[in-house]
Structure to design on (564 residues):
C-alpha cells in the first residue's frame, strides 16, 4: 500500500516514514503544492497524510483542489499534525485565556469577553484585536463585537499581527490558529517573547479540535489527529482503517470546475498555461487572438479571463473594453498579461475595471494563486450584500436547498420592514442605509449570539432579510426580534417626530399621509405540517405570509398553519 506524506522535510517526518515502511507501507514525502497535486494524480496513493499546519502553501486549498478534480475526488486523506506547542492552548497551565471551537458559541464568547477584557458600554468601548484570514467570519465577529460595544480591530495578514497589536494596544486578542504564512502557535511565541505584548490576554478560535481524534473534522471534513504526541499503535490502527474503508465521499460532486479563458498568440506559452491550470483543477478554454477570445466569451461565459495585452486583431484591453460594455459579461474578472510595464496602459486598464496585471514571463504558481484569489473575492462580492455584509441570494438558496435535503424540521423567517419607503423619503437614503445596517446587526445579535447550531442569516435585498433556524426556536426568535426592533425604532427619528409619534410622507400613489414608526413583519415557513420540496415553494409561501403579517398594525409575525 502507498502512503503520500505531505509535510516539510524534518527528523519527525523521516521517523514517521521509517516507521510506516517498517510496517510494510511504500512511503513518499512531498512538501510543496505542485508536487502534492502531481503525486496524487500520477502516483495514486492509497492514503494521503497531510500536516494541516504546513507553512509552504495552503493545505485547505490542496484539499479543495483534490476534491474538485474528478480524477482525485475520492482520494482518501488523513490530517495528522504533531504540535509540541499545543500545551500553550490545551495544557494544564495554558498561555491563553480560552479556547473556542468554530462555529463559535457567541454566548460563551461574550462571557469570556466580559471575564477577560471587562464589560464594554456605549461610552466605554474596549478594543479587541481579531486575527483571522476568513473574511466572512471577520465580518460576523465584527458585527457581534460592535453590537456589544467592543471596538474590533481586524487583521487578516498573520505577518502584520504583532505590528498592529503594538499600534492599537488591544485589551484582548481573538486569535485563529490557522492563518497562511504563520500559524497561531508562531504568533503565540512572538507575543510571549516581547514584554510589550506578553501580558495581553488571548482567546484562541479554531475549527480544529486539539488533542483528540476526529472521524470528520469540522474544517476539513476529513479524519483528524492534532496532538502533541500520537501513540504509534493508534496511528497504525487509524491508517489501516482509512485504507481499508470505503472511498471518502466527494464534497464537490455538485461543484463545477471554475472556467478560465486564456487568450495569447504565443502557442507554446498558451498551452503551458492551459496544462498548468488544468492540473490545478480548472476547466480551460483557449483563444489565439482577440477576436477568437471575444467569441469564446460569448460561447462559454467563463468565470475569469486571462488576456495577453499584445494580440492580433484585438489587443487585450480592446477585448476587455467590449466585455465591460456588455452587461452580460461585465462581471467577469480580467487579468491582463503583458511584456511591458507601461504605466499609461496599466492606468487605462485599471480605470476600465481590470482586476490584475501579470508581467511576462508568467510564473504559473503566481497565476494560479491570483486566479484563485480573484475568483474567491468575486464570489464574495457577488454573493455578499455590500451594505449589511450578510450572505446574498445565492447563499440563501443554497442553504434552503440544503435544509430541504437533510429531511429534518426547520423554519425560514422572511423578515420585512414596514413603512421603510416613507422613512427613506422623509429622512433620505443615508439614514435608510443606517436602518438596514442596524437591522442586520440586531438579527446577528439575536440569532447568532445565543445559538450553537449554526443558524443562518441572509439579506435578500432592500429591507428584506431571512433567517433559517430550527422550528422549535422559530416562534421565540420572532418575539425577540420584534421586541428588539421595537426598542430601537424610536431612536431612528428626530425629537419632533418622536413626540408626534408619526411622520408625514407620500405613499406609492403620491398621496400625502401619516405614517407610523418603522415596524417589522415576519412570515414563518416550516416543514412540520406540510412537505417542502423546493426553494421556489419556500419563497412563494414566505412572500404570502409576510404580506399577511404586514396587514397587521405594528410589528407582527405569522406562522404557516396550513396543511396544503
Amino acid at each position: 500500500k502507498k502512503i503520500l506524506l505531505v509535510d516539510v522535510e524534518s527528523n519527525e517526518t523521516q521517523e514517521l516514514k521509517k516507521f510506516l515502511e517498517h510496517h510494510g507501507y511504500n512511503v513518499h514525502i512531498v512538501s510543496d503544492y505542485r508536487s502534492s497535486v502531481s503525486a496524487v494524480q500520477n502516483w495514486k496513493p492509497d492514503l494521503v497524510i497531510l500536516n494541516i499546519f504546513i507553512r509552504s502553501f495552503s493545505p485547505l486549498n490542496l484539499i479543495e483542489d483534490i476534491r474538485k478534480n474528478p480524477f482525485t475526488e475520492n482520494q482518501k486523506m488523513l490530517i495528522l499534525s504533531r504540535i509540541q506547542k499545543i500545551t500553550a492552548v490545551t495544557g494544564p497551565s495554558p498561555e491563553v485565556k480560552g479556547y473556542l471551537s468554530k462555529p463559535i458559541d457567541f454566548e460563551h464568547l461574550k462571557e469570556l469577553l466580559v471575564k477577560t477584557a471587562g464589560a464594554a458600554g456605549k461610552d466605554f468601548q474596549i478594543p479587541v484585536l481579531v486575527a483571522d484570514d476568513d473574511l466572512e467570519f471577520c465580518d460576523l465577529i465584527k458585527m457581534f463585537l460592535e453590537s456589544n460595544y467592543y471596538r474590533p480591530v481586524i487583521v487578516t495578514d498573520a505577518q502584520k499581527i504583532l505590528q498592529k497589536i503594538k499600534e492599537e494596544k488591544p485589551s484582548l486578542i481573538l486569535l485563529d490558529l490557522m492563518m497562511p504564512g504563520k500559524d497561531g502557535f508562531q504568533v503565540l511565541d512572538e507575543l510571549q517573547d516581547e514584554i510589550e505584548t506578553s501580558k495581553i490576554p488571548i482567546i484562541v478560535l479554531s475549527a480544529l479540535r486539539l488533542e483528540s481524534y476526529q472521524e470528520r473534522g469540522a474544517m476539513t471534513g476529513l479524519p483528524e489527529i492534532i496532538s502533541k504526541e500520537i501513540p504509534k499503535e493508534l496511528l497504525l490502527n487509524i491508517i489501516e482503517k482509512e485504507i481499508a474503508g470505503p472511498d471518502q465521499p466527494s464534497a464537490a460532486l455538485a461543484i463545477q470546475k471554475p472556467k478560465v479563458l486564456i487568450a495569447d498568440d504565443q502557442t507554446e506559452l498558451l498551452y503551458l498555461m492551459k496544462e498548468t491550470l488544468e492540473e490545478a483543477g480548472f476547466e480551460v478554454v483557449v483563444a489565439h487572438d482577440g477576436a477568437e477570445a471575444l467569441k469564446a466569451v460569448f460561447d462559454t461565459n467563463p468565470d475569469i479571463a486571462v488576456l495577453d495585452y499584445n494580440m492580433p486583431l484585438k489587443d487585450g484591453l480592446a477585448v476587455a473594453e467590449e466585455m465591460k460594455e456588455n452587461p452580460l459579461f461585465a462581471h467577469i474578472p480580467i487579468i491582463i498579461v503583458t511584456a511591458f510595464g507601461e504605466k499609461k496602459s496599466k492606468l487605462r486598464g485599471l480605470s476600465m475595471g481590470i482586476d490584475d496585471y501579470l508581467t511576462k514571463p508568467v510564473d504559473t504558481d503566481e497565476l494560479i494563486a491570483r486566479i484563485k484569489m480573484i475568483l474567491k473575492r468575486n464570489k464574495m462580492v457577488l454573493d455578499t450584500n455590500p451594505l449589511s455584509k450578510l450572505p446574498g441570494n445565492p447563499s440563501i438558496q443554497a442553504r434552503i436547498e440544503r435544509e430541504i435535503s437533510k429531511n429534518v424540521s426547520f423554519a425560514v423567517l422572511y423578515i420585512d420592514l414596514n413603512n421603510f419607503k416613507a422613512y427613506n423619503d422623509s429622512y433620505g437614503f443615508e439614514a435608510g442605509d443606517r436602518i438596514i445596517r442596524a437591522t442586520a446587526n440586531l438579527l446577528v445579535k439575536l440569532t447568532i449570539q445565543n445559538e450553537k447550531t449554526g443558524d443562518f442569516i441572509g439579506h435578500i435585498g432592500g429591507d428584506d432579510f431571512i433567517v433559517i433556524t430550527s422550528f422549535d426556536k422559530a416562534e421565540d426568535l420572532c418575539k425577540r426580534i420584534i421586541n428588539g426592533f421595537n426598542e430601537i425604532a424610536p431612536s431612528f427619528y428626530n425629537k419632533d417626530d418622536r413626540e408626534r409619534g408619526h411622520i408625514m410622507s407620500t405613499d406609492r400613489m403620491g398621496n400625502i399621509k401619516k405614517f407610523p414608526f418603522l415596524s417589522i413583519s415576519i412570515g414563518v415557513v416550516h416543514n412540520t405540517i406540510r412537505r417542502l420540496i423546493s426553494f421556489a415553494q419556500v419563497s412563494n409561501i414566505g412572500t404570502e405570509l409576510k404580506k399577511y403579517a404586514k396587514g397587521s398594525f405594528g410589528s407582527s409575525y405569522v406562522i404557516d398553519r396550513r396543511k396544503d
Notes: DSSP finds 21 helices and 23 strands in the chain. Residues 364-383 form the longest helix (20 residues). Confidence is low (pLDDT under 50) at residues 248-255.
